[in-house]
Design goal:
Helices cover about 35% and strands about 20% of the residues. It is of the alpha/beta class. The relative contact order is 0.15.
């Protein structure tokens, strides 16, 4: 029987993990970028608040100016943070939660995207992905989580506009690493999500916390935990074909636990992938929801 996920223990590990990947952050403007995908099933599909708070506390105590921010697929970062009880936990630290809204047009891969000005203005992004299955990418990790730096409904528009253009959409996601500020990643795999995702999957007690200065290498390690082949994961496959550092499993070093130390035997990945391109009705629904939420906040 799998043990109940222990986020108290996980949070106690985070200072040591961040010590191993962060430079001197005193005086830096840091954006902590969790995975806030949607209000529905937020307690499971989003980065756990204990992980966010532990990362924020570490950064504040080391002299950084910290903001927690994301651009969810549905809803706002503030509403999702409220749903998982985050604002009350961050209040003693003086850390604000913001929705990554105002964008700057930048080319990523062969696609022009609107990237949050707040993300671009940060000196460093602390990327906090959730370890989970994904219905379009088969796995969602550190590289995919950076897509949340694209503003609002623009993400749905990019799905609709470029999702059916062979590898263009995946190349755009991977290209974000070249235009965003330096990034370190801390992956929440304590209670992972399997079967499907990124919202409606099921809990899987994995007990994993991983940190790396390279989002590509961290995702490769996650793939190794799952015993998966790169060609099954579009993002990993693209990174490997482009010879991005960290994509080749033989190049990785594990100073603490190794991938085989984690039991992912029963972790179920989607057998087939949904199209990357959103249907027009999904794009319209996302736009209407955002317009309604913007009006409601006034």
């Amino acid at each position: 029987m799998r043990q109940t996920p222990d986020y108290t223990h996980a949070a106690s590990m985070i200072p040591n993990l961040l010590d191993s990947v962060l430079p001197d952050i005193s005086g830096l403007r840091l954006l902590i970028k969790p995975n806030f995908v949607a209000l529905r099933n937020a307690q499971l599909c989003c980065t756990h608040p204990a992980v966010i708070v532990a990362a924020a506390r570490y950064c504040v105590e080391h002299g950084a100016r910290v903001t927690v921010g994301d651009s969810p697929a549905f809803g706002t970062a503030q509403s999702i943070a409220q749903a998982i009880g985050l604002p009350e936990l961050l209040r003693p630290l003086g850390v604000e939660v913001v929705t990554l809204a105002r964008g700057v047009c930048i080319k990523s891969g062969h696609v022009r995207v609107q990237i949050s000005a707040a993300a671009l203005d940060a000196d460093l992004i602390v990327n906090l992905p959730k370890f989970k299955a994904h219905s379009q990418m088969r796995f969602s990790g550190a590289v995919k989580n950076l897509f949340g730096c694209v503003t609002g409904v623009r993400k749905a528009w990019l799905h609709a506009r470029h999702g059916d253009k062979k590898n263009r959409f995946v190349a755009m996601i991977c290209g974000l690493m070249n235009v965003l500020p330096p990034t370190v990643s801390l992956m929440d795999g304590v209670e992972a999500m399997h079967r499907t995702g990124p919202i409606a999957g099921e809990a899987f007690a994995l007990g994993l916390m991983g940190a790396c200065a390279s989002p590509v290498a961290l995702d490769t390690a996650a793939g190794m935990v799952l015993g998966a082949r790169p060609e099954l994961f579009p993002i990993w496959d693209h990174c490997l074909r482009e010879k991005l550092p960290g994509a080749d499993a033989t190049d990785l070093d594990f100073p603490l636990h190794k991938p085989e130390d984690f039991d992912a035997t029963d972790f179920i990945l989607p057998a087939s992938l949904k199209p990357e391109s959103f249907r027009p009705d999904i794009l319209l629904t996302s736009l209407i929801k955002r317009m309604w939420l913007a009006r409601f906040r006034r």
